[in-house]
Every structure is written in C-alpha cells, then in structure tokens.
Amino acid sequence: MKQVTHRQSSASDSxxxxxxxxxxxxxxxxxxxxxxxxxxxxxxxxxxLENGLMTxxxxxxxxxxxxxxxxxxxxxxxxxxxxxxxxxxxxxxxxLDQGQRQLHWWAGRALGLARPTVTxxxxxxxxxxxxxxxxxxxxxxxxxxxxxHLWFLMMLLGVQALLPLSVWADNxxxxxxxxxxxxxxxxxxxxxxxxxxxxxxxxxGARVTANGGGIGWLNAAVVWLLPQQLGIAWKxxxxxxxxxxxxxxxxxxxxxxAAVASGYPVAMVDGAFGxxxxxxxxxxxxxxxxxxxxxxxxxFEAPVRRLLERRRxxxxxxxxxxxxxxxxxxxxxxxxxxxxxxxxxxxxxxxxIPGEVGFWLGRLWWIALCIVAVAxxxxxxxTFEMRRKRDVVSATAAPVILAGGAALLxxxxxxxxxxxxxxxxxxxxGVAAASWLLRVHPQPPASALDASLSKQKEAESSSL
Length: 464
Fold this sequence. Notes:
By secondary structure, the chain is mostly helical. Helices cover 67% and strands 3% of the residues. Strand 1 (45-50) and strand 2 form a beta hairpin.
C-alpha cells in the first residue's frame, strides 16, 4: 500500500506539467507475482488433525519431494526485485544527477513498510496474548507460519539500499555489471564447495549445501542484487523482445537442470530449517529461477500488454497493486480462522499426503477457507489504512535513519527467529521504534508538507 504520497503544489503546476502515463506492465507482473505468493503459501501449509482438531502442520515440500519443481515458478522473489528495480531506476538516476541523498529516499521506503508492519505485529501480539490467556490451541501449530513471510521485507529493503550503486554500475558497465555479479556469485559457491579440481564441479551442488553457510552468506547480497541489476538494464532497453525472452527461458531451464544434477536441492524455498537449502544462504541454483522468470516476463510481454488495454483487466491490476502490501502482510494470518472454520465445519482440510484420494480436494477446501477468512481482514485493514495519516515526511538525519533501519532489521529478525510467540512481541517493539525514528519530529505544517513530500514520490512507484 502506498504510504508516502506526492501532491501537486497548485492546480497551475499540475496543468503545466502533465503527468507521464504509468507503465502498467510492471504493475501486472507484481500483481501476478503477489497472487502466486499468497496461494503458494496457503497451498504449502498442510494442517494435521487428530479427532477433528488441528494439532500440527506439515509443509508440502516435506511430504512431497516432487513439489520442489513447482517452486521454480512459485519462488517469485527474483521477479519482485527485478520489477522493483525497473520501476525505481529512473528515480534513482534523477537523485544521483541532482545530488539528492539516497539515504533520505530509503528512509521513506523503510517508513512505508514499517508503518503497516507495526499494525500487523500489533494485531498478532493481541492474538498471542489472547492465546496465552485462554490456552489457545491453534497458535502453536501456526506459530512460525505467521511471521516467516516477513523475511522478504528485510531482503527488499537491503537490496534497495544499494540501488544507487546498481544504477552507477549500469551507467559504467551496462550488462557487464550483471556478468560481474554472476562471476562473484559463482566464485562464492566454488569457495564454499572447496572445489580443487575440474572433476569436482560435477558435484558442486552437493558440496555447496553440505558445507554450511560460511562464505556462502556473501551471496545473500550478491544473488539478490543480480535481478536488481538486470531490472535496471531491462528498463534502459539493454535487452528485450520475444527472442531474448525465449533464450533466457531456455537458459534458465538448462541452468536449473544442471544445478539439480550437481546436487543442489530441487526446491527453491525451504520446508524446514537445518536441511540442505538454496535459500539459506542463496545459491547459484536460484539464479536459474531468475533467468526463467525474466525470460517469461519478456516472452509474454506483448500479449499481456494487449490484455491491459482492456479496462476491466487494467482496473483489476490497479486494485491488486493498491492491495499489495496489506495482502502480503495479512494473508498468513488468515490461516488461523481458516483452521478454526475447517474444524467447526468438519471439512477435509487434513487430506493426507499427495497421491492419496482427496488430497487436492482438501487443498481446495483449505484455500477456499483462507479466502473466506482473509476477505474481512482485508476490509478492516484497508479501512484502517485509509483513515490513518498518510502524508508522513521521513527523517533526514543519517544517524537517525541508520538507527531506524537497525531497529527495523532487529524487529523483523526477532519475529522470524522466534515466531509469533514471543517473536511478535519483540518484533513489534523494534518495528514500532523504527516507525518513530524514520519520520521527522515534529511533522512539518501543511504549508511546507508538499515540498517535503515531493522529494519522496518515487517511494510510491516501487512499493509492494
């Protein structure tokens, strides 16, 4: 949801400076990726019932190894980063040309994500305290499921903090900057694997994932910077077209096949901690997913743009774009009432394992319950967000911004590590502190507000 707005200072200014037509294709890509994330998360959560009551949950990847291939499409974080970079590239270049401070822009982005996250964690804390008081049974099985998705916010803000560097690299080297990042990511995995002879390359994936994190954590930055660098290059027309899209698709599929053959895990998301992973830390296998998704974005660009010319589809994309941040934050919370409804109605939300009769029917029931549960939540959240003050000027002092960023990072990490109980309590403290630190105190009067907010308008176009 857009948290920082830009308003024209006068009607005459608006008339004198016509607004450029917004490119709807990146919005459509993000809307599609958002739906993939939401439904993917719901599908992956498998409630387990005993005597009609949910006692625990499984992850789809832990009970069906074949589902790993599906994550080549469901792991859409590279696409999000790619599109966000493309949308933000022009604004970042203008700030560089005008000598504006990137840190101030980043503070607006961080504040725009911190404010709705405070609301989510506050409600989650209320659920946690109520569960602790009443002995709530459903919170336990879903404890970590309610906060695990917050990692994406941390990663996105991290790569966007380096956006000026990525723009500068594209200015200087073009697509060679992408190649450079790719070489660094490859070197990191080779060092992590301890490769000492060409023959050991055939076991690269197995050796990488067997050696723990170590130097591999450098790829937590490099691998996610790759789609950002590629998105800037795409925005500037360095590659495009159906032929290029098909070539990248083929490259991605060959890349993924070779990665799996060398021992990298098939799945591009994690079903549990402590198992061989392509995500903690990121590996070269994830780069194959990036090629596939970017290739698909180019391959289907022309037909999707034609569809966007239809008013109804364009309106749907606009609505999904406006609901992006709330839906991403709150869709996991819908699993609590969905589980409760499934129990009360006696629906087959525990459908066994893949291959058994009724498994996918049970998945459909579970998704339907999640949709029913998330609808009133979204209405309440959107109503609240529309009524709260939206014109908030972000902080300008570097020490305060850095302190706010650290508080935001700490709050998200606490929520991820500890789950809803007690992680949401510690997370709320950190994110609330960030929300306070990342804004100007006191806020400027209305007469000065427009000028301050106009410097932050790019924060809108790159929001979830």
